[in-house]
Amino acid sequence: MKQKTDVPQGTLALMVLKTLDVLGSLHGYGIARRIEQISGDLLAVNQGTLYPVLLKLEQEGVIASEWGASENNRRARFYRLTREGRKQLQIETQDWQKTAALIGRFFAAKAEDLS
Amino acid sequence: MKSASSVRRFLVRVLNSASSRAHDERFKEEMEEHIALQTAENIRSGLVPAEARRQAILKFGGREAIKEDYRAERGLLGIDNFLQDIRFSLRVLRKSPSFTLVAVATLALGIGANAIVFSVMNALILHPLDVPHSQNLYQLMRGKEKAGNQSFPDYRDLRDRNRSFDQLLAYDGAIAGFDTGGDPSSAWVELVTGNYFDGLELHPYLGRLIHPSDEHGPNSAPYIVLSYAYWHARFHDDPGVIGRIVQVNKNPFTIIGVAPPEFHGTLVFFFPDFFLPMVNQQQVEEKYDLDDRGKRSVFAVMGHLKSGVTPAQAIADLNSIGADLQKSYPAADNDMTFTLAAPSLYGDYLGPPMRAFLTALTLLAGLILVAACTNLGSLFAARAADRSREVALRLALGAGRLRILRQLFTEALLISLVGGAVGLWGSVLLVRALSLWQPFAKYPIHLQVNPGASVYGLALLLAVGSGFIFGAVPVRQVMRIDAYEVIKAGSSGKPGRRLSLREVLLVTQIAICALLVTASLVAVRGLLRSVHSNFGFEPQNATLADVDLSMAGYRQDRMPAMQKRMLDAVQAIPGVDSAGLVNPAPLYAGTVSALVFSDKTADLRPANATAQSYLYKISPEYFHAARTALLSGRSFTWHDDNLAPRVAVVNTAFARRMFGSVTGAVGEYFKTDDGTRIEVVGVAEQGKYHSLTEAPQPAMFLPILQSPSSETWMVVRSTGSGANGLAASNEAQQLAPAIRHTLRGLDPALPLYIQSWTKEMDRPLFASRMAALSLGVLGVMGALLSVTGIFGMAAYSVSKRLKELSIRIALGAQRKEVLQAALGRAFKLLAVGSGAGLLLGILASRVLSSVVYQATPRDPVVLAGVVLAMLLLGLLATWIPARRALAIDPAILMRED
Hints:
The complex is a heterodimer of chains A (115) and B (897). By secondary structure, chain A is α+β, with helices and mostly antiparallel strands. Chain A has helices spanning 9-23, 28-39, 50-60, 83-108, 111-114; strands spanning 26-27, 63-69, 75-81. In chain A, strands 1-3-2 form a 3-stranded antiparallel sheet. The termini of chain A are far apart. In chain B, strand 6 and strand 7 form a beta hairpin. The longest helix of chain B has 36 residues, at 351-386.
């Protein structure tokens, strides 16, 4: 509560979906590690904040979860993308790219272009 | 897509709210696993185990905060917190039962009062008449007085010449003997015009209704349409009654149909038994007014406006016809202007006063609710003050202020819902009783009040609304709490002035309460006295039998003989002391009065009359049977008949007014307005004739043989001795079947109404009883509200000043001084309020004495009663706060704070 994540929730959710899309079934720690690695430690998130996001995605039906065994042979919750999740990821990727391209153009624009 | 998933998520969350434990477990397990994996990773990268775990936990982040987030995601935070709040509130409320009880009772009172008033309002005014298009149905009101009754020829002209109404229909009410071959009884009839049912757009439940085509002149349509309720009660829903021939006043009528169940005439409070065509008036009422323009005996005229016609246009139309009639018939018709009004409360006759009365009641109920809310507000403020420590602690532990407020509101709402439910339950019981209640046994008048969805809805709305209002009182208090200060320093001892507005309200409440207590005591005392006062007759141990010979088909000439036979037969019943006839029964069945003139007056104009005197036609035994004392002279005998000189017995007021003295009256003469000279043969004691509160009125008694009367009340005195009251009244009651049997033995077709005289006294006592009852109810309500008000204030003042009081005790204050410090103000307010209320009550009793016989506030019992009652209220209300103030242990309190 005191220290809000620097990453907007929607972005974190998108990262989760992409991670699961690439790596298949994964437990919470795995997802957190993966995001950390890719972002190159740029994302100084409280890892725990991942779990409420996972729960929200599961309740939306875009991911599913089940119990499985982790590396050290203990019970862990494994998450995977559902079909609906895959569709959602596709749509959101496109949206994101469109938005990013648009913002990119705005940043590239010079004063004379706007006159 | 998006919306589908959010709907799905919502449903899942609602479900999850119910199964919170399993989810908490899952999160805990995932968290443990996460930290274990991270710890392992950290060890691999070279940290010692303890440090590895510490780092892992740090990296995971604030566990509790995440857990809250997780919970928020999992279920609906609102529902979750709400359920949690409810559980917590229930626990808190259970821990302080006296507070809960007082609060619930206070609110139940407020909600109950409003629910009852609204139910009655709904039944009488808001709910439309159960006929099609009732919003478009108007009754004609004539002239400046807005009279509802019209003459039949006028009605006929208005009906045929107007261009504004679909149908103009009319009815009149009457009472008639009804005989189906078994048990003849009197029934309430509506005499209706042929177009009555068609004009009201009604369809029969069974058979057919009356139509204009049935009418072909006087007594041409001997048909009856039963009301559904009468069909149900008298014929037990037998569909075979259609076509049956029954006797109405000994004339054969055919039952042709049953009216629809929801229809009971066009007055909301009057329930006629059946309907028959007005053209048969002569058979029912022994008169035929349908051709007499001067006799305004049609009770009401009404109709649906044609579509597109406004009331103003209709009035203009009627007025032009009225002006024309006035020109054509100057002798019979004057002031023929019209207005329109709703027929359900007999137009302008009962409508506006009823509306004003109910509006006043609504205001009163609203005031009660406002007072209840004020009191609950101060109760809640007292609680909030008590709990400032708890609240501060929760704030310090990180609870949001909103969350704490929400919890307080949940408590308020719980109280309001429970209180509302209790109030509603009570009001439904009361309203049911009210619906069954028939204030006048002989008349089919009652109030059909069905508390429906609208009433429940209103109660819920009021309950929740007041919950928010009184729940909001402590908001400012909570928002101001500084956790740090409270925990450090204990409750702020700032003695600052309390809300003086609240005190003013409280004093007003107490004053009103004292006023009501005074008034109700005055009324009850007056009522008790009047029940045992002298009416000029003795209702105890007497039975009344109302016999109307015309209903059984007797003509004038056969009546006296029959009446004599009836008296002889009843007197022969064992256990009967005496029996006599009187018409009308005094104080009960209305009054008849006549102008009387001094014997010397030659010009018998009304202006020259010496007095207007009540007139009673009696048989010789009446005085003895009624126990009316004769002060001088003689009573009548059966020889005071048509052939004998006209005689009368007068009462003392008559004697004084007419002859100047009681002693010299016997042997004097007076005149009636037709010039008949009547000799006074006796003087009877003064009695009550019209109402219990009347001043002594002149009355005269005439022998029934010289002034025949078809309707008579037979007074049957039982032999029961006055000393053994209970046994005697039982005996009087047991006489009723014997009287019925004996009279039926003489003529099986006699419609009878038999009742004990004490029971019949309910009606003259009705106003006093109602006044005493309603004042009593209001007094109790006022008392309850005052108790909670004083309780709230006293509790608040003790809580606020606990610390100060404990210092006083520590410094050696005595119990008396502590109580004075803690509750002095409350008692001062009580004294001021009670004094004001008592004074107002004494003033108001002057008004009361016009309703309740012998009501006077100059009565030591009343004054002492009021003071005692208010003192008791004060003690009751301050008992708990006082005990709390006395139980203060300064050592504990000062160590803690």
